[in-house]
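#struct-help
A.M.: can someone run this one for me? Single chain, 68 residues.
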Amino acid sequence: MVRYIVTKENTSGKEQYGITVIEDEEEEDSIADIAPSFEETALLAAFLQENGVAAVHFRDVVEDYLAK
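D.P.: on it. Structure tokens below:
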């Protein structure tokens, strides 16, 4: 089962939120700087989770989302 977890990072005094992909209790992939908004990142993580997006497609879906 794939899980999508929102992460928070502080760099140069700036908060950025990302998503980490967990599959079979191991970190498969992550993107640290998706958005400065927790809400936006959490909505994207929920979308990925609810639609059962496979870890292999994670980066493509996030890229498409950000290109909007």
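A.M.: thanks! The CA atoms of residues 25 and 60 lie 22 Å apart.
D.P.: also worth noting: Helices lie at 38-50, 58-66.
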